[in-house]
Every structure is written in C-alpha cells, then in structure tokens.
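Internal ticket #5521
Category: modeling
Description: The requester needs a full-assembly model to guide mutagenesis choices. All entity lines are attached below as received. Residue total reported by intake: 846.
Assigned to: D.W.
Attached entities:
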Amino acid sequence: MRADQILHPTEAGLYCPPGDFHIDPVRPVPRALITHGHGDHARAGHGAVMATQQTLDIMAIRYGEDFTRTRQAADGVTRVGNVEVSFHPAGHILGSAQIAITPDKGPKIVVSGDYCRAPNPVCASYEPVPCDIFVTEATFGLPVFRHPDPLAEMTRLIASMAEFPERPHLIGAYALGKAQRVIALARQAGIDGPIAIHGALQRLCDFHVEQGIDLGPLVPATAKEVDAQLVIAPPSAFASAWVQRFQDPVIGFASGWMAVRARARQRGVELPLVISDHVDWPQVTQTIRELSPDEVWITHGTEDGLMRWCEMEGFAARPLRLVGYEDEPE
Amino acid sequence: MKAFAHLLERLAFTAARNAKLRLLRHYLEQTPDPDRGYALAALTGDLKLRAVTPALLRGLMAERVDAQLFALSYDFVGDLAETIALLWDTDQDQDVPLHQAVALLSNTGKAGLPAAIADMLDRLGPSQRLAFLKLATGNMRVGLSARMARIALADMGPPEVKDIEEIWHGLTPPYQPLFDWIGGGARPEHAARAPFRPVMLSTPVDLDQLRAFDPTDYTAEWKWDGIRVQAINDGNTRRLYSRTGEDIGKAFPDLLDALNFDGALDGELLVRRGEDVAPFGDLQKRLGRKAVGRAMLESHPAGLRVYDAMIWQGRDLRDLPHQDRRAVLETADFGSDRIDLSPLLPFATWDDLAALRADPPSVVIEGVMIKRRDSAYVGGRPRGPWFKWKRDPMVVDAVMLYAQRGHGKRSGFYSDFTFGLWDGPQLVPVGKAYFGFTDEELRELDRFVRNNTTERFGPVRAVAPKLVLEVAFEGLNASPRHKSGVAMRFPRISRIRWDKPVAEADRLETLKDMIP
C-alpha cells in the first residue's frame, strides 16, 4: 500500500483509510486518535476516541465526561481496522503521545503530534520510534530557534523577583502543560513558597498532582489580596479586568516565541521567558537525522525552513499544510 | 558582558521610568570598573567605536548559513543583529568582560574586523551576542536618556544630579573618577572647558496664586516656544547644551559660529528669519541631525534669545540678584545679530500682565515668565523665585478610536487612547494621549473600552466611535509623517465628554486651522 493510501490530509485532519480513523481531527468524526489534550488537537464530539489514559482524563476535565460516545485508553499495540497502532511518549505535555501506524503491508508511519526533547518534569520524555515516514510539526522550524535551558530562564525570573521585591510577577502560561511546567521549574529553581494560580488553572493543576507530580504549595489568585509574589495565569487573563487587582505587576510570558523580541513586544511583555514545549531547530533536525526516515511530512508551523533543510540534507519532505492548529496555542 | 546583556534586555522591555532607573542602578552597583563605565557610555551614546556595517555582518552570515534559511530567518525576526545573534552556531557562553569587547571594536583594523567579530561571537551565548552586535552597530535602542543615566548615578551616592551634570562633559569613558566620587572619593576636577551648568527652572502659576505677591518684586518676559539652551564660549571653546545637559551643538553650527562673546548664557534657541521667530516645527527640522546641509542652514537659521547670564567675561554672576544679572546683559555685546536679549514686559498689576498674556505679539509665544528681581540663579526647580504662566492650552473635541493596555501601575487597564476627528464622513486618527485623567476616570474609561470593543489586535482594541474626549495640547505642527497631516504636542485628555454626541466632535479642518 502506498503511503498516502495509509494516511493523508483531509479537511477534518489526517485520515487513515485502512484503519478508518482520523488523528487529531478538527471537526467531529466517527473515530479519532488523539495525540494530546491541547484544545486544537483534542476536540469534543467524536463518536469514539482512543488516546492515552491521561489525555482521556484531561479531555473529560475540559469538556465533561460526555466528550465522546466511547473511549479507549491506548495500551500496547492495538489493531484498528486493517492497521496496528501504538502510542509512544512525545515529551510535550502530560499524556502527550506520538502515534505509530503499522499497516500489514507498506510503510510504517509515526505521527509525532507536538513533541519536545528537552527534559520536562511534568511528563514522560520523548521516545524515538523508528519509522519509514515521520510526520513532524515545525512550530519552531527556523534555525533562529534554539531554546535556552529553561532553568536559566527561571534564574532570570528569580533575579527579577529579587530586583523588584514589591512587584508581583504575573507569568502567562498556557493552562495545560506550560503552566504546570513553569510551576515545576520554579520549584526546581528553588522557589518553595506559595505560588498563586488563576482560577482557570486549578482543575488542571489538581490533575497533575493526582498524577503524582509535585507542584508544591499553590494558592488561588482569585482573592482581592493575593499573597504570593509569583502568579501564574493563562495569557487570556491579561486582557481581563482580573489583572487590575495587582499593584504595578511585572508581566511575563512563558513561550518559545519569546526568543524573538518583536514577538515579545507585540504582547506588551516586560519579562519574556523562553520556555517551550515544542522541539526547537536543533531538536527537530537531530530527530530527523536520528530516525532517518524515507520521507518527512510536515504538519504545521514554519515549514519553509524545515523543507529547505530537508532538501539540503537529502531527505524527501513534503508539507501537509494542515489547517486548524495554532502555532503554539494560548 | 553577561550582566550588560541582561541589563539591555530588561531595559528594552521595561517601559516604566523608575523600573529602568532601578535596573541601571543595580547594574552599576554590582559591576566592576571599567566595565560599568563602558556600559554607561554605551547607553548614553558617548562610546565612540568603529561602526560595524550591516554589509560586514551579512558577509559573515553568507559564509556560515544557507542564503535561503538566512532570508527566511531575517524575514521572521525583522532585525539584522538579532537574527545573527540567534543564528550564530556555538555552544560556548563565556562571560567576556565588556572592556574586551570595547577594545576589540576600537582597536581592530578594518581588514581584521570580520574575523575578530566572528571570533568574539564564537565565544558568546545568545544574549551576549546580541549585546555585542548592538554595541558594534551602535544601536542600543533601550529608551534610556543620558539624563536618566545621571539620575541613576545620583541614586548611588552622595552627589546630586545637578552636581553630576555639571562635571559630566569633562569626563570620558570609563568614568573612573566619577565612580570614585560616587563611592565617597574626591570630586573630579573640571577638566574640560565650557562645562554644562545646572539650569534654573520655574514652576507653574495662575492668576489667583499671583495675587498673593507684590508685582513690583517681579519682572516678566515672554516665554518663547523654542528650546531652552545654555550657550557658552569659554576661551573660544563653544558649546550649546540642552537644559538636561545634552550637547546639541552639532546640529546648530551656525549658532555656534555666532557665539562671539566670553561667557555662559541661558536663553531660548529659536529659528529666526529677520525679526520673525519661526514656529517650533521649523526648529524641530534642525534637531537631531548629525550634519546640517547648507540649504537647511539658509532656510532655517538658528538664533538665540537671551534670558539670563551665568558667567560673563570671567565673572560668575549666579549668586547676584536677577536684576543685577539683567543689568549686565542690558549693556552686553553678544557679538552677533543672531543673538538678542529677551525684552522685559511693562506691567504695574497682575491684571496688566494677564492682558498682555492674553494677546501675545507672536504665535511662537507660549506664555510669560515671571522672575523675582532678587532671585539668585539656582540650578534645579526651586519653588518660588521663577514662575511660568503658560497660555491656555488649545483644545479639540475628538472621538476615541483605539485603546491600548498600559504597563506597570496601569497593567490591565486600557490607558493609552488614540483619538480622531471628522474628515468628511470619516474619523481619522490625529493623536494619542495617555494622561490627564484621574484614577477613577481611568477605571471608567477602561470599562467603556471593554464594553465597546469592536476588534482586537494584540494589546490594542478598536472601540466603537461613541465617546468624545476633550483633548488639550500645547502646540501643533504640520507633519507629513502623520496620516492626518498634523502632530500635536503634549496632548492629554482634559475632559471626558460623556454627554456629547460624536457627531458634534470637531473636524480635522478645525485642527489644521490652528497650525501657526
């Protein structure tokens, strides 16, 4: 079977005809395999969902228990229609997985979803899965993106908190994954006092703690007086009146985009922290070299840079130009 | 240079002045000599290094990165130095002392420069690479004035800002004697001729307040709408300083040539054509230029209207009463017809002066200055001896079009407002204002913006054109760079007209008619 008979892009997302399922579909479909719980990959309303147990739990937290008619937790190799599928850690957020598709005859395809190879205290590390076709994201697919050591970014945060001890530090971080990672990094970096969290983070932080991830003492940032110098909130909160309770805050934002000053300025951020849950340029190119697939398919992001690199390195590559996925969701 | 790189990065993203001052002070306190001195000079624009051209930098990249990947990267990042800092491939991150980087950029010959720069970049981590490249291209852009740098220095030790300003122009990087003085050592001697001296400033006043004073104790003169300067000829060393001590002489060679006297004068820099004083907009055309063309010198000749004398023919007059200094000026020869003395206004009562203020003989007059006859010349802004009684501001009723979230104390509040006027059936943006309202009014404006948002662009919101703002401003220039063709000076929101229908807001023609 040819590769594009096993997997090809459709308007609903990547579709696998022999297995009759979609991967991370952007609209309701009968059968969906979900790589991870971010809203642009995991949507409600499918007939059946297969994902890691953690991703299923996250979807239930976000959309309610009725987010799908039937669900199945990924466990080892499972036969779906005429292909075998298996889930492997992607190192992106808690529960995130790559999905490997092995047809009876034809190339093995790995859909990496969003993935990251930097150590992350809140999820299992990326695991390379040998394959013939590697489907990769290219969120940070330009050689300017070399994410620094996230602990060094934490050092900058701590230095700022010491330099401006009277100012609360409000760090914007996506509610699922990034927020918990920033908290865990802050703990690693030695911040052991209470950290305040915006109400929108409460349930997802609780879930991480239930999963055995130590986030230390968290207090709600919903009260009129918030008794913590470090406050974590989803970026959308900064446009709301919620911010007004803080006196002269330092506004920060934790994202891979903060490496580029113009991007940080657009957000009106005073303390940009370059902390990303996606592969940067060295990681994505190293991964492709390591797997050395026959073909590289690029789902979304700044694919032109990665296409050019594949061309120079002699990897056959093609962009899938999937729509509906955000660069790095906020 | 790691600390310097960190400082640059923080300054670039910090809008609030006090936060900037604290960042700089901490850096200067924690950094050893001579690096802190070089950093200070780099920030104040006093570090003269070999300018590295964009072509040289592009050449370095062409040898190292695929042209297509470079083009894609540059396109994404939008800044050459930053693109190179991010792209440069090295695992090293040595903390190279700033003075080494400065030495490299001042001592390396042209032929050896590309290799020396590449070698330095190989040793540095990304934020230091950016700092080094910004240093090399001479483009810091962190929004820190030399004045602010001196305030930060004054916060570090006993000398006051005016003391530092007074000796600043005699100092050269890396300012070791200055830091020694701040650290408790001896005051550096004035090495240079024609030093800047702290300027005496006035406080605002109105008619009610003036009635408490005896008019015979005061003189009055016009307050001209130019730039307050200190013009010095000290043994033929000629200098022109702004009131914050910036040396602006380079932009005004014609006036420097006209300083044919021996002394230090306080006055207003103006563009003058014969007896006529040109509007501020004409003067603005001459500002900030590194070199002035002959055509500009002829069409926009600079002149000086003298208000006061600090030094005259070797004598320091600053401790004399204002009327005695004035007497010296009355008989002085300034040596050029570009320089004249600001005449005193005749008045017996404050109402006389009010009448003069209400009808000035020139549009370039922005009010009257009132000075106690017995006042010594004291640097700074003492309360009492000198008053400024500015003309009433111009106002227009404009419509709020966009709002942007503020920073620091205004975080979370929409506090920067773009407003527009009617041009035919359309509202065209004419300016931006972010002060003039109380905290309570800010909360009301913020609520209005949130309830009337039509579109969002990052931190900016477009709002439905529903609210009229009375905008007060000090002056108006024709400006080809603004879409509306006009630029306001010091616009602020003087009243929120919740009551006024937007259809009754002013028209663009009304504003244009106010251009002097």
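Resolution: model delivered.
Comment from assignee: The interface with chain B takes residues 142-146, 148, 156, 159-160, 163-164, 170, 238-244, 246-249, 251, 259-262, 264-272, 302, 304-305, 308-309, 312 of chain A (CB under 8 Å).
Ticket closed.
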